[in-house]
Write a structure and sequence with these properties.
Blueprint: E1 2-4, E2 16-18, E3 47-49, H1 57-64, E4 70-72, E5 76-80, H2 82-93, E6 98-101, H3 104-116, E7 122-126, H4 129-132, E8 146-150, H5 157-163, E9 173-179, H6 185-192, E10 196-207, H7 213-221, E11 224-227, H8 230-239, E12 249-252, H9 255-263, E13 269-270, H10 277-296
Parallel strand pairs: 1-4, 3-4, 3-11, 6-7, 6-9, 7-8, 9-10, 11-12, 12-13
Antiparallel strand pairs: 1-2, 5-10
Helix pairs in contact: 1-10, 2-3, 5-6, 8-9
Length: about 300
């Protein structure tokens, strides 16, 4: 299976790569400009994957195992904010009943600061399995200091805020390192239940600064675009040429992103009940099946 890949770090020797050969870059890498090598005429991508380069590997491999080619088109970039520098200090000098992590990127940023703070003992509450997977890479004995102890019944922020256990303290303290773009739903929901919440905006998400027109034209013709965040779907909508009717399918990683897609007028929106790679792949397959049926009508 083929992956059409875009990168600024080094020119590709060939525009076509095997889907399983996904390079792994650190989470802090962000893209300023996307360069494009013209794809082979035989390339026939069915899904556009839109996370930052180096973070699409699992999804691409899962789709490759089902015979589905992908076009890799990063739509957003992550940059650290001043609160990132505060995070390791806060972890070194304070104890919290819970650390709340609501996305893989927030988890990766937290881990950098936690290691810099000397890996103090912490108890983590995550929004779902996709976020929890970030912590599976930690190696023992360091892993003994980090306990992923809670995930809500439904992988959305509202459920986390409603279900996070109060440990019976007079004031149950929560550290919430998050994207500056994240809503206030988590801290407000917890505060209403009597939790004391410290939020640190450790990073932000911005659209990539440039997409080659050839890439965009190809992506617009692909049946399904897979998105993992509200920022990504907003970036995609901003790239659709004014006046063009784009009605292909959007496969979202979860309900939160899907709701934003629908608010932006995208009608063919699919998402799993529980966010994560497996559910996301199922939603992509469902979207492809529906698109195939529509093309036959």
């Amino acid at each position: 299976m083929a992956r059409i890949s875009l990168s600024t770090f080094a020119p590709l020797s060939s525009p076509l790569l095997r889907c399983s050969s996904s390079p792994q870059f650190k989470s802090r890498i962000f893209l300023k400009t996307l360069n494009f090598a013209s794809p082979s005429a035989s390339a026939n991508p069915k899904v556009v994957v839109t996370r930052e380069r180096g973070k699409n590997g699992k999804l691409i491999d899962a789709l490759a195992n089902r015979g589905i080619d992908c076009l890799e088109l990063p739509l957003v970039q992550h940059t650290q904010l001043p609160d990132f520098n505060k995070l390791s200090f806060v972890l070194s000098n304070n104890e919290f009943d819970w650390i709340v992590i609501t996305s893989p990127e927030a988890g990766a940023v937290f881990l950098d600061a936690w290691i810099a703070a000397g890996t103090p003992k912490v108890q983590i509450g995550v929004v779902g399995a996709g976020t929890a997977s970030v912590f599976e890479k930690i190696q023992p004995p360091v892993k003994q200091s980090l306990n992923v102890a809670f995930a809500p019944s439904k992988a959305i922020g509202k459920a986390l805020a409603a279900e996070l256990p109060n440990l019976g303290n007079a004031r149950c303290t929560v550290l919430y390192p998050a994207s500056a773009k994240a809503s206030t739903e988590i801290e407000e929901g917890l505060a209403n239940r009597g939790f004391e919440v410290m939020r640190l905006n450790t990073y932000t998400t911005e659209p990539v600064s440039h997409v080659d027109q050839m890439v965009l034209d190809l992506a617009l013709a692909v049946p399904v675009i897979a998105v993992a965040s509200p920022s990504a779907i907003r970036a995609w909508v901003s790239l659709i040429p004014e006046g063009q009717q784009w009605d292909n399918a959007v496969a979202c990683i979860g309900e939160t992103t899907a709701l934003v897609a629908k608010k932006l007028g995208l009608k063919n929106t699919f998402f799993p009940a529980n966010p994560g790679i497996e559910g996301w792949v199922d939603s992509i397959l469902e979207a492809l099946q529906v698109q195939n049926q529509l093309q036959k009508v």
